[in-house]
Design goal:
The complex is a heterodimer. In chain A, 0% of the residues lie in helices and 49% in strands. Chain A is mostly beta strands. Chain A has one domain: Immunoglobulins (Immunoglobulin-like). In chain A, the strands form two sheets. In chain A, strands 2, 4, 5, 6, 9, 10 and 11 form a seven-stranded mixed β-sheet that branches. A four-stranded antiparallel β-sheet of chain A has the order 1-3-8-7, with no helix packed on it. In chain A, a hairpin with a 7-residue loop joins strand 9 and strand 10. The radius of gyration of chain A is 13 Å and the shape is globular. Chain B is mostly beta strands. Chain B has one domain: Sandwich (Immunoglobulin-like). In chain B, the strands form two sheets. In chain B, strands 2, 4, 5, 9, 10 and 11 form a six-stranded mixed β-sheet that branches. A five-stranded antiparallel β-sheet of chain B has the order 1-3-8-7-6, with no helix packed on it. In chain B, strand 6 and strand 7 form a beta hairpin. Chain B is globular. Classes of the chains: A mainly beta, B mainly beta. At the A-B interface, strand 4, strand 5, strand 9 and strand 10 of A face strand 4, strand 5 and strand 10 of B.
Chain lengths: 114, 110
């Protein structure tokens, strides 16, 4: 079974530039999460999708972050414009049907804003 | 809603035991334990459900105390490979939302 794929692995941008991350979840997984993990901290949930609908985006800074999951499969997370404090690893995870199932994480995208 | 983990960091010698705790202020439905090594993605260890008590295998196990709204991860006779940061993730009844604690860094020395 293929895992969660993310790209790019690394990205360096200047502040005020825009950036986009891509995630392809495990086939058939309805739930998709985007997390932000700042160095030394736990993953912080930014947004959760169920199929192509947003279930929770309470922690997403909506003035600069946006995310979509077209057709309930792939997802993109965008930051525009980026700030220095956005430097972090952005993790995508997917999960199967409702109930007690584990979430599988991708390798993440390490973003450095300079 | 973020769970609180304790301790924040542990340093052990190989062969020693460790306990990591995860507490919630809200009634839990499930607790997920992950280990993350530096520069890598979190790796799933186990999941505990409301109504269940203990799970795992000989060396790594966990318990779930519904009344106290907490879970504990037990690492017995630790090995060098156990080093990493351990995270608990929690979900609530009727929701797939998965919220993680701040992590516990475990260092195992020879």
């Amino acid at each position: 079974e293929a895992g969660v794929a993310q790209s790019p692995r690394y990205k360096i941008i200047e502040k005020r530039q825009s950036v986009a991350f891509w995630c392809n979840p495990i086939s058939g997984h309805a739930t998709l999460y985007w997390y932000q993990q700042i160095l030394g901290q736990g993953p912080k949930l930014l947004i959760q999708f169920q199929n192509n609908g947003v279930v929770d985006d309470s922690q997403l800074p909506k003035d600069r972050f946006s995310a979509e999951r077209l057709k309930g499969v792939d997802s993109t997370l965008k930051i525009q414009p980026a700030k220095l404090e956005d430097s972090a690893v952005y993790l995508c995870a997917s999960r199967g049907v409702r109930g007690a199932t584990e979430a599988f994480f991708g390798q993440g995208t390490r973003l450095t804003v300079v | 809603q973020q769970p609180v983990q304790s301790p924040q960091a542990v340093i052990l010698r190989e062969g020693e035991d460790a306990v990591i705790n995860c507490s919630s202020s809200k009634a839990l439905y499930s607790v997920h334990w992950y280990r993350q090594k530096h520069g890598e993605a979190p790796v799933f260890l186990m999941i505990l459900l409301k109504g269940g008590e203990q799970k795992g295998h000989e060396k790594i196990s966990a318990s779930f105390n519904e009344k106290k709204q907490q879970s504990s991860l037990y690492l017995t006779a630790s090995q060098l490979s156990y080093s990493g940061t351990y995270f608990c993730g929690i979900s609530f009844q009727g929701a797939q939302k998965l919220v993680f604690g701040q992590g516990t860094r475990l260092t195992i020395n020879p």
